[in-house]
Hints:
Elements: H1 5-10, E1 24-32, E2 35-44, E3 52-56, H2 67-73, E4 78-82, H3 101-115, E5 120-125, H4 127-136, E6 143-149, E7 154-155, H5 157-164, H6 176-186, H7 195-205, E8 206-209, E9 212-215, H8 223-227, E10 234-235, H9 237-241, E11 247-252, H10 260-265, E12 274-278, H11 290-301
Parallel strand pairs: 3-4, 3-5, 5-6, 6-11, 11-12
Antiparallel strand pairs: 1-2, 2-4, 7-10, 8-9
Helix pairs in contact: 3-4, 6-7
Amino acid sequence: MFIPNFLRRLFKPAMRPRAGFGMRERSVQCMGPRGLHRMAYVEWGDPDNQKVLLCVHGLTRNARDFDALAQALSSDYRVVCPDVVGRGNSDWLEAKSDYTFPLYVSDMVTLIARLGVEHVDWVGTSMGGVIGMLLAAQPHTPVRRLVLNDVGPLITAESLRRIGQYIGKNSVFPTLEAAENYMRQIGASYGPLTDEQWQHLTRYSMRPVEKGYISNYDPGLGTPFKMMPILLNVGVWDSYDRIRYPVLAIRGAESDLLRRETWLDMAKRGPRAKLVEFPGVGHAPMLMSEDQIAAIRDFLLAADE
């Protein structure tokens, strides 16, 4: 049943999202330059809640990175976590050169339309934050609050070279234990995680094959890295400066992708982001710990108090 926004505001205390809704798996058809592709997503919380939080992962990650955050916020939000095309349970593109930000932004607009809401709040880790910035900078953007997790308007060439060393190398791991050891190696900068959290990340970062397990993303994602020499930092300051809604900029204190000076500048220009930094973490905080989740919850819900 459609309820006008003014009535929702009047009866807000009586319209809290209902408890007891677990995770649901969904998908949406999106249009790319060469045809349709399917984008998978998971959804938490009351499916009738018009207050939606979209959580978008990093370059080689997937929707299940946000399980802890989604569960923590599902009583306040309908939390939607997509597998960006080429990752997780989403389709792989035939033309690897189509893995571009314009396509990712277009897919998110399609997803928001499917959800049937006018506005969303956004949490984006690394690549997911760049997608969020590009969308939030558009006229008539649906993004009303934006959390940028260890990413900003300037991405260092150093971090891109590091990522280029492993992306697209689809090694086969004979066991999940071997895969977890690999995850702990390439994810050392994630900071201190429990054994259970490493197992969770490994489980959803891998898929079974005949001789073991391989990373659960299209190795063709490495194509853009192979097509150009990474010599310079990559910047989207023009987009950041056009954002007119509240921004929270999270930084891992040891990050090589979001320089401290860039992070500090984000508080001085454009939307003048609120800054939060976590010690002992590099790129990127996994948003699984209580302090990281609390920082996001406090920012997102502050406007409702």
